[in-house]
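Anyone else keep sequences and structure tokens together like this?

Example one:
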Amino acid sequence: MGAVHDSSTAAGRSSASGATTDAHAEPVAVIGLACRLPGAADPAAFWQLLRAGRDAITEPPPHRHPAPGADTDGPRPGGYLDRVDGFDAAFFGISPHEAQAIDPQQRLALELGWEALEDAGIAPDSLGGSPAGVYVGAIADDYATLLRRGGPQGITRHVFTGVQRGLIANRLSYSLGLRGPSLTVDCGQSSSLVAVHLAAEALRRGEAALALAGGVHLNLAVESTTEVDRFGALSPDGRCHTFDARANGFVRGEGGALVVLKPLSRALADGDRVYCVLSGTAVNHDGSGEGLAVPNGEAQREVVTTALAHAGVRPEDVQYVELHGTGTPVGDPVEAAALGAALGTAPGRRAALAVGSAKTNIGHLEGAAGVVGLLKAALSLYHRELPASLNFRTPNPAIPFDRLRLRVQTETGPWPCPDRPLVAGVSAFGVGGTNAHAVLTEAPPSPPDEPAVAPDGAVPLVVSAASAQALAALGGQLADALEGGQQHLPDVAHALATTRALLPHRAVVVAEDHQSALEGLRALADGVNAPHLITGVAAPSGRGPVFVFPGQGSQWAGMARDLYHTDPHFHDALDTCATALDPLTGWSLIDTLTTTDDTWLHHVDK
């Protein structure tokens, strides 16, 4: 795939820093994250794994068996997910027969898409019909290999859509009812970062108003590992020794990650939490060289330089780069030389460029590797801390670190220049020569969060799920999250009511304080009754107006005062009612419902 922008077009306008950028290159906000990675079921767990410097490389799980009679050296160490066969098909409206024929990569993308939207504060069921895009990097077909081992008799009508890689993105768009672009990207090991690049470009062009982007990768068939091994890319000792003298190949990993992207101006206007800003991206190709799979350092330097120009960032301002960093004898020195030329030796650089690779923690996720690097960089910007890159003991003698002004981040610690704006780069390179680079900057400062306005007294914690079992599990998870007692209950109640899908199995905990909230949620988790807990199943008729006729005795003085003055929708609706009723009744509806004088309120003709 060729570069989307030629570097000569990058001089559209000057930035405050003196760099140049495209006139149309509006920054893009990263507002939601989701991942399923070796040793880390979500972004919070991934950040803890990175901060602690943990190695998630293990022997294969017991259920990962080689094919009978397969020509292989046996199971290999790798970064594995605990389970890839579990899937709540009914939740996504998929029949059991179809679920069995669906590539688990499709299933993983469905789960990650839902979780990423919820992390962004967007109810996933609220996007139907919207121009939201889906861009997913994926290069593996292992599940198709497994299905075809059984011969033609095992091929059902669901296999056709179940194993096509293009359906990975399409099924997520279909499940959420999205009308924006939907495509699976396959350009080798840079696929997921190219997917992010394409998503950002679609947002800037107005093709999408919101985008889910990232990648998935699962190692399910031993044949695919054998292919990589015989190509000569696997490390004999099952580790990625990135930039180390022991660099001898990579170890395979699996999992996936998706991010939610939105134009920065729109994200700030909407009050979204911004993890970081995707300021600029670029994609190019190695062109002709020593061989199809031999990296081209000049092309790598160019893709970094072009991404910087699109971002309006000076080379000396980049403090950290999340490397492609596979730990191969050929690739590491080429990547180091390209980064030194593009960034490390910039005249104004105050400190050596820090570099690292998440592959040293969880292995090489191949088609999903780029977005894992982006996820690590985004979390590092958000938390203002750089995790350690593992397996670096002796500097690779083929990399002149001092001359290139590079250093491997070997300990978890602060950014090199925390007093300056934080800027990170992320690189991903495909074996066939497709290179991608992204420039991330820290989120702009935002005003302190205002607690949700709530009347004195209890607040409702609304929880819903697709099944009774899931509802109970959700109650337990929410109780665990509230255990510390630091959360502001009205904020929690507001988030639960406005940023989560309304599913049929529902519960409401009427919480007067943290203790009653915990009691009600624990009762929900344990399946027992509690004074503060109400449970039920929604009627299948769907949403619509609800009319409540409570009768005499349910009113109180000032019952509408706070809502009338804080909610514009309620304010306008009540004014409309007052305009219609006041001439007929001879008294003021607004005064009666908002005053603290309850004289008129207790007349039965009201």
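And example two:
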Amino acid sequence: MLTKRLSRPHRGLWPAAAAVLASMCVVASAVPAGAHPTGAKNGRTYYVAPWGRDTAGGRTLLTPFRNIQECAETAAPGDTCVIASGTYEETVVPARSGTAEKPITYRAAPGAKVTLSGATQVRGWSPVTGDDVAEIGKSDPYALNSAFSGAVEAGRVYSTDVDLGSDVTTVQIFTDKKMGIEAQWPYPGLDLLDPELQYAGAGSTDATIADADLTRPAGYWDGARALTSYWYVSATTTVKSSGVGSVELGAAPPCVHKVVPKDTRYSLSGKIGELSNPGEWFYDSAAKRLYVYSTDDPALHRIEARTRPLALDLTNISHTKVEGIGLFASTIRTGPSSTGVTLDGITGRYLSHYTDITRGTTDCGSSVTRGVGDTGIVIDGTHNKIVNSDLSLSAGNGIALRGQNNTATDNVIHDVDYLGTYAAGIAVQGNSQTVMHNTIYRVGRSGINLQWGTTEGLAPGPDRIAHNDISQYARLSLDTAGIYTCCSADMMGSSIDHNLLHDGTPTPGVTPFAVAGVYADNGQSNLVIANNVGWNNLEGTVMLNGLGTGSHNNGVYNNTGGMTLFYVKEPGQSTGTRIYNNIGAIRGLAGATDGGLVLSNNLPAETDPLFVDAAQRDYRLSEGSPARNQAIPLPGINDGSTDATPSLGAYQYGAPKWTAGARR
């Protein structure tokens, strides 16, 4: 009877349906239909599956809803939506919240692979012909005799009519679930965290990029979009005029206010003439036509466009659990009033995308902060958490942690901030936030960007950033760190402790500056930076910059890997800051001690600490280490040594070795 009921209307789906129903029966075998399997009392269980019907009621395995939204419209406090394998192309907006005692749960069925997708398939492809190029040339004569026209002649360019809106900077195209890139020069390749780079040449200044490699005819780049990056600033603007060997930008890069020869990297896009490499696309927003470069018929592939940025909108929702759900080309957002939301086991790819950083402004703040608070998975409100999740591929953040008393724990985050802005693996705003046991790697700027903010009506408190393993940061920006925090804020005793911070990877070919494990920049005060271990960082494990308002009352204790202090020789720049019990060279002492900073019991740089095996990154102390029995005792900081007196550095002799990173 089961086979008969499912196979008639959905014959092609039967094998997948049977497999998922088998897994869902694990739940059904122990729980009566309509009962909540593991959640709050009196809750109902509803089912969702790609072969279901939204009018079926959703109360049994045989009568599932078709869309998650239908379950979200129906579910009441204590209820659970169990979701079968499949791709659901929808934005889910729940109709109501749960309660603290009876949360609403959205859960993948046991063994199911559930994906909420923000992408829509694009069809109707046809080869672009020489006649098409001639027609394009009537409005864009530079398309004639270009790399694009050559690709058309080779039979590599296809197009179709599709409305993707008027803003090309938010268009994102995928082929077989992999992101393509907008046609641009230079062709960066398909790994945006390791792109092919082009640098401004001799003669560049202010808003002028001079480069002998700019060989396109005069006027070719007029009106194009330009991305520039120098020091700590990535910015976008338009090209005002162009000639062979140079382009004049509509505005100089903000903050730094100039293009710097050999150090400013740049790229140019918005011209169909560049459509000539694998993975590239071009969208004509006026004609609403999409072009792709393909070595074979696009109909043989699944080509999609991002059309729904949000997969799950929890802006006005509280006391809700989301478990085991995948995201593709979309994300999840909670709101300022959200509380008690748990995201558990989320697998997210291509969370956020945009290419316009500066949005026409010329002030520093707008350019360096775009995407910090509103990209990636956005956790706002209070007492919400994201745990056990795998997040990758975002122009902005992996996670934006806003509000107060929210948590990000045991997540793996990588290949995010591919624009190299102040977005991060985890962008921490607000206060009283907990970020622990995350693994973060391959990021454009910082692994964790820690900024201070308050929540109206709530008393602020310290953050805890601990036991994270962060590596391969600063791939597209400088003046940053694995954990970066700025500027002139009282951090109220926030603790950055027990983190592994290693292998900062600044952009090759540029003048390096300030890549550290932890970097408290421009006058951060009342921080505790303790028991961190770093290696392969230009400025060591810790860097303090006391410029601006000064950097006061910081405790830098028991870190391993050295540090850099950046202070002017001015009284009061570093009053109350104590640097005790650290291992590794300390640079910049003169200006720091003049400002009131106190150093004590740090192992001299010339003394070998005799680690267990530094070559294998085991920085525990060997039996003969001169760092044993040498530390100032600091309760809660350097407890646990089997010696009479604590050890210097991040590992106490004889104590169990602490761990960092996601515990999975």
